[in-house]
Amino acid sequence: MIDEAWALKPALEQARAIAAKQLKPGDLVALYYDRIARIDPELNSYVLLTRELAESQATAAEKRIARGESTGLLNGVPISIKETAALAGYRNSLASLVFEKSMAQVDSFAIGRLKEEGAVILGKTNAPEFGTRPVTEGPMFPPARNPIDRTRTAGGSSGGAAAAVAAGLCSLAHGGDGGGSIRIPASCCGVVGLKPSRGRISSGPLLGEDWAGLATSGVIARTVADVALGLDAMSGHLPGDPYWAETEQPFLPAAQRQPAALRIGWTIDAAAEVDPDVATAVESIARALARLGHAVTRVTPDLGQFRPLIQTLAVTAVGALPIERTDLLDPLNRLMLEAASSSTAVNYLQTLTQLHQQARRLIATWDQIDVLLTPTLTYPAPKIGTLGQNVETASAEFLDWLSFTHPFNCTGQPAISLPLATSTSGLPIGIQLVGRPRDEYSILSLGAQLEAKFAR
Fold first, then answer.
1. Which of 64, 141, 157, 273 has its CB 3.0 to 4.6 Å from that of 131, i.e. a possible disulfide?
2. Which CATH architecture describes the domain 1-456?
């Protein structure tokens, strides 16, 4: 077997070694499956392994190289995809016992793009039912545990994806983010998580707008360059998409160059209390950015205005699903389904109109800045089984923790979580950068600059 160190190498380095015939995709696949067998029983990061598919994709990648054919961005690179995404020919459960026997007939757009770019799919990663919890705990699968501290959550809803990356069980991971679900687990597990701009990656062909445009596919990886590479591999849109952001130039070069001097606003102001270690970390990064030559100022955007709106949109998203066996649901989703029945089309349209109005007001902050710096979460990863246990108070608890993530699903702006700090108890602290609409480039360049200076 190849040197185990390859399992923790960046995806970009793996791709280059494969292209140069220094590393065989089949050997890399065998290494990851060996590690999954040894390590994952304690983490529960994967809920479905697709070994036959992975081995066939690895063989195909090797043949393309041997024949000198044009290869994709991720040719032969082993990745994971989230359980809630559609992978043709495999279970399409949405992490729910209600749909446990459902099979995907087609790939979701992001998964199809990953295949086109030569990625090797190791399996599907753990998620809570319908992705409605920010911790990966639900009735269908055991909880995803944090590789840093197995008593703590890996976050959610892409918790299995972040745990797999952090533990060296894939090179990069597909995730989905409707209120922070890529950035939350990235922050909890000490890896990089990128939520792209609304419309950067199509929600088709199965969905029109996912959670009223709040949700998008994205990338979790070990480095900023890797999330840029993953975004290059997944980006694109389909005819008829309700939103799209054209990709005029690739994203990877942005993660490989120094940023220009930027106007950076920073805030730790939220509707909920911010952990002192988290606040200190953001203040330290803000000072460091000033020393690097950026114009840094404290700002006070209103990030609390979307709370009731995102609750309504999440409720209606659950209510729109063809659910027949309510007894199989997570109690929280059962409550949401009941609430959805009293929501009218008029309520929905009023909520969406308010969301767009408030989004315009928040985005106006970027008239004075280029990038916003915030914590990713108000506090580090909690213990498993402690957050949102009371369904009557769960939504408020979740939104307190996600005070800095969910607003940018509402505005559709790109945001990245970077593992730049550690709490006094040794837990990762994610730092979030938010770019202006459709500007992943600035946060990728700035993120790479910070990664070079601070990454552990």
1. 157
2. Alpha-Beta Complex (3.90)
